[in-house]
Amino acid sequence: MPSLVEMPKKFIVPSMKMYDGTTDPDNHIAQYKQRMFTTAIAKEYREASMCKGFGSSLTGPALQWFTNLPNASIDSFASLTDRFVEQFASSRNIERTADDLYEVIQKRGEPLRDYVGRFNKEKVSIPACVTSTAISAFKRGLLPDSDLYKELTKYQCRTMEDVLSRAWAQIRWEEDPAYRHLLSPRSDSRVVRNERPSRDDRPYQRPRSESTSKRSDSRSDHRPLNQIESDQRSSSTWPDMSNLAISPAELVNVLNHISGVRWPQKMKAPGERRDTSKWCDFHSDHGHRTEDCITLRMEVNELLKKGHLREYLSDRARSRIDDRSNDESTRIARTHHGDVKAICERLSKCTISFASDEDKCVLAPHHDALVISLTIANSLMKRTLVDNGSSTNILFMDAYKGLGLDENALTRKSTPLVGFSGEVKQTIGEVTLPVYAGGINRQTKFLILDCATAYNAIMGRPWIHDMGAVPSTLHQTIKFPTPWGVKEIKGEQEHARSCYQTTLKGKGHELYQLEIQSSIPHTKEAEVEQLCEIH
């Protein structure tokens, strides 16, 4: 650190939280600037004071880095902060995007006030959040059967302030004593038994699958068990609650400690239509007993399929469920065993080998890298390096732009890449693109790197292993198994050598080549690949 410039006398660095290199460096710089700007420093001393005082805000590894800076190596505070951020770039917080708002979802039974609070907390952490995206994410996160969701669907809002004003109006109504009184059970209500509830009385459930939706449409989750038709009862796969080793109340308590349980909303049927003498712990409402709750049985069945609750079943029930699961698996396997079985058997018997005469067309002797042309995102990408020494798949920024893709499609995530000599390059994001080879189309994740290079892309070990491929630089070939035999892609030595020469000369993207293909060739092999759904 240079000591050539004198500090003003009686200068004291303001107190602040010390930085040790484990948190975001940008946040520390912002805090340091704010504290220093509140200190009275003469203009001619401000730059020197900012630089020399910076070390007083550091501790641990960060302070060690600061003291190791060569003398006279810093000529301005801007250059100091640039080197500081570069040194501790790995500690930067991942920048959040507007898409993260779609992950904020109102839970069943969660008060609207809590959901609005969580959403606002997420929104303020996103810089320059687009208003239309925020409105769309807020509405999509609401329960689809809530009053606010219906209102926002009927009346479109153009500003987030308008949305929140409607939300706060709904919150005031939810927290009003009169509204809570409507939800409380009525002691003088009439009891109506054996009456089939209407469709509107059924609580909304998010669709899980086509078969589940059809089953849910034909049953109400708060009907007493004696109202279920005999054919439904006989074909039901819901476990008998009497076969559980714990009581229904204990079962609900166990569910409270399991993540992913779909809790139902309170029943919407009017109080006079529900039996207030019966209480359901799962619904936390009157209308039927816990042991008669159809929704609870359906949820227990789903949890059992996922491997939960097995320890609470009796030996007889556990054996019956295991047998049913085996029968279902066998039925599904028999349904699809035809072509898929033949394909899998062919894949397992594939032998990949290289014969001595396969290098006849190779320009020998050589030490060339394996450079191929590969179809990425429907474009024939030349000068693609196959490198089993790379732990990632890399697509360079110029090639990404050449594909005609929008930079907004990138997931902005900075990842440090370390070279052989320890130098670090930060990626600018990542993207998943289809890579087509030998009839197989795989979704492949690429890290986007913006730097001068002779290559368009580098296919590293993730893609090589995902394809089950075996590359050979000696034979200038990469081979990989497919459902219709072993396929191969030949290397292009001329491109490999020109890339090598370009790298030595430091000319970067001089040989940029990209051929756009309108579509992937449609073959019978491609049809089989779609059937197998190899990912």
From TrEMBL:
Stretches with biased composition (Basic and acidic residues): 187-224
Classification via SUPFAM superfamilies: Acid proteases
InterPro entries: Peptidase_aspartic_dom_sf, Retrotrans_gag_dom
Spans annotated as Disordered: 187-241
Domain of life (superkingdom): Eukaryota
Domain Retrotransposon gag, chain residue ranges per copy: 56-143
Compositional bias (Polar residues): 227-240
Name of the molecule in the record: Retrotransposon gag domain-containing protein
Species in which this protein is naturally found: Microthlaspi erraticum
